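Following up on my earlier message about iron/sulfur cluster. Here are the inputs again, as you asked, copied directly from the submission form:
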Amino acid sequence: MNEFHSDFEIVAREDFSDVTFMLEVRHPMMARAAKPGQFVIVTSHPDGERIPLTIADFDAARGTITLVIQAVGKTTLEMKETCRVGTHLYGLAGPMGIPSHLGNSKKVICVGGGLGVAPVYPQARALKESGAYVIGVLGFRTKDLIFWDEKFRNICDELIVCTDDGSAGLHGFVTDGIRKALEVHDDIDEVVAIGPPMMMKACCDATREAGIKTMVSLNPIMVDGTGMCGGCRVKVGEIVKFACVDGPDFDGHQVDFDDLMVRLRRYKEEEAAATKRWSETCRMTQV
Amino acid sequence: MKKRTVRSIPQQRTPVRELDPVVRSRNFEEVNCGYDEQEALLESQRCLFCPEPKCIAGCPVNINIPAFIEKIGAKDYRGAYDVITGTNLLPAVCGRVCPQENQCEGVCVVGETLEPVAIGRLERFVGDLAIANGWVNRPYIEPTDFKVGVVGSGPAGMACAADMAKAGCEVTVFEAFHEAGGVLRYGIPDFRLPNSVVDAEIDKLRELGVKFEVNTLVGRLFTIEQMLDELGFSAVFIGTGAGYPALLGIPGDSLNGVLSANELLTRCNLMKARDFPNVDTPLPLGKHVVVVGAGNTAMDALRVTKRLGAESVACVYRRSKTECPARAEEVHHAEQEGIEFHWLTNPVEVIDDGSGSVAAIRCIRMELGEPDDSGRRRPVPVPGSEFEIETDQVVFAIGTNANPIIGQTSKLKLNKWGYLETDANLMTSIAGVFAGGDIVTGAATVIEAMGAGRRAARSMKRYLGLREAIEEPSSETIFGIDAREHNFVRVKAA
Ligand SMILES: Cc1cc2nc3c(=O)[nH]c(=O)nc-3n(C[C@H](O)[C@H](O)[C@H](O)COP(=O)(O)OP(=O)(O)OC[C@H]3O[C@@H](n4cnc5c(N)ncnc54)[C@H](O)[C@@H]3O)c2cc1C
Ligand SMILES: Cc1cc2nc3c(=O)[nH]c(=O)nc-3n(C[C@H](O)[C@H](O)[C@H](O)COP(=O)(O)OP(=O)(O)OC[C@H]3O[C@@H](n4cnc5c(N)ncnc54)[C@H](O)[C@@H]3O)c2cc1C
Ligand code: SF4
Ligand code: SF4
Ligand code: FES
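Thanks, got it. Here's what our run produced:
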């Protein structure tokens, strides 16, 4: 094996819940190159789709990167079944995207909603390492879905965990967490929010009035991740940007979230068909 | 041999067999069946072996065209292959996709009175024979200690890699996608250039010792500067292509159902989405498709959507057919396959169906006015001529801009359009880093990209102090073999 090459072996896996799992994949060169805010494109098998996943953690010493995946459709459901320790991904390209700009903000709220908790982690850690005061706000639907709260506690000065149903932590959405933090701190320089588009939109609305800079990480549908197809285009302040090479981080107050949400529905029917077909054949082989 | 004249040669250009338009417009089989031996021999009779052949100058890599046609005529096909591969690495590809009417065939002397010699088809005949018989010209390679890195596996990168491998360097090609080939793989569809042809050409590079590292996004995984400083490369060639599709820039262009031809073609060709749901990548398919633009990319998008089963497929282009940049053969094939053309028509708005998808495209008729800077007559809108075409899918193929990744991640100097700046030797602003192909010139052609790759290799060899085996083409022969080729040995691959 040479220095560029990796066989993308999965060296560790942890399941956070029925739908969320973590994979640690070997790629020494990427582990050295990766920076917070970047993502990879994974192809799980030769006939597979190219799907973008955020680099949720990286460890140069171990030579691995970590992905946290939510099984939502054909590819991710299948990966949940097939990606075991010792197996290999077919393709893994990256790190892609412009690394998050870690400016000189002194006090920052890092918001992660649901699966967004994973991608916001490297940013929170890097901010902490750069000397900032970091307040973590993590949102989950319910207690059983909570993950990485310990990991965050180690790097945050304050941590607010919220659940939609109140089964743990603060009863409410991440926006309630943000408001709570803003009540105590009137000197927040920046908010970083990652999660479903709806949540990021709500976070931006929550900070707009106070004029607090809010960075979001956009997740449009992608194909190549190298700026070649234009499938990932998003509207930012009336200008069209390609999230894979111009982002994925953007100033949330400029982003047209409604446009993003419409475009995410583009392949809905095909995705549903693929998932249905997959779960049917899957069930058949299990019988 | 008796001297040939325009009067003595076969007057008709030998026709090539093609699949029936109705049948083929529903499958992805190759449209142009190519010449068989008899047809190739017949067509080879049409070359006049001009003493000062214009065709050679018309070819961007200056293939010695009469020499290879003469070998075909003598049934020395292997000899013909040797002549072609003296300058062109990919005859099976170029014979298929070169815009010959603007290049070699466009200046062929026979073309002044009759139809020009079918140079491209003859070249393809030889290229296909080589693939079928496993011919490789494996040079005597004297290893050097140099490691050369090539970024991008399109025709520019492949050509540079081949030349540097022949010069004895250890060459690694880095490709961001999970398969090599560049536009030949993800852009040009199978019915025009089968993937098996691309595979065969890439295998030949592997035979030369070239290594391919796919899934490698240079700039982000490691930078160009790191390649030189840390990773031990003595020289680097950048051939990352153009990419970054230009947008329509009209209201409604972000609606669902509006996509770039690059996205459509990548999904269909590279990701094999036409086999969905047997593969995982979905393909957006409209019933009534409109493609904006009339270059090769547009023609491919039109013909792909037709094959995927769209009921109607229409092309909208703001200039007239005479100005259209696609290869003449592609436009002709598209017309045969039942594609509608709206020449002198410009889109002004994509209309929403109320749920964020496309309902129609509003266009305006154009007429040709005064010539512009490029010498082409500038199209100007005809007031009050707006009309709508009902459609559920709009594909734009109106050109590309420079891909920003290398610029974002290195100190390389870019020109004002974001393409890499190079000097006459194709060296960039960093010593030892060369570039060529679409990332330098903007979107061009396969053979021009290959030509650039080879020119860059020549400069790279000089930069590394490597001796060029034989510099200038010559017509000398030793034992019937062209002198400049005496440094290779003929082998038959297993
Ligand atoms: C830059 C970026 C980073 C991402 N990081 C992660 C991550 O760390 N972990 C993770 O689990 N997912 C992440 N995603 C989303 C992930 O790519 C999609 O969930 C995945 O492509 C779905 O594939 P599928 O075949 O399993 O589901 P599909 O059947 O394709 O889709 C199922 C559902 O997911 C939605 N969906 C499809 N593509 C996307 C997308 N790109 N973004 C959001 N929703 C989508 C569809 O609208 C649909 O409702 C990221 C996306 C981007 C663009
Ligand atoms: C649909 C279509 C049809 C065409 N038809 C014709 C035709 O009929 N005849 C003709 O002569 N020309 C045609 N062309 C034009 C021709 O294909 C191009 O001019 C030619 O391929 C350019 O070659 P290139 O090597 O510069 O780049 P490309 O072929 O674009 O290859 C560049 C490669 O570099 C990779 N890459 C990019 N960035 C990076 C990075 N940072 N790290 C690693 N890899 C990277 C890309 O993934 C790609 O594989 C067509 C183009 C298209 C899009
Ligand atoms: S490479 Fe292209 S231009 Fe040159 S001779 Fe062949 S077909 Fe003609
Ligand atoms: S210009 Fe035409 S006729 Fe003359 S050598 Fe070339 S191909 Fe033959
Ligand atoms: S994913 Fe293709 S351009 Fe961004």
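One observation from looking it over: Residues 2-96 of chain A form a domain with the Elongation Factor Tu (Ef-tu); domain 3 fold (CATH 2.40.30.10). Hope that helps, and feel free to reply on this thread.
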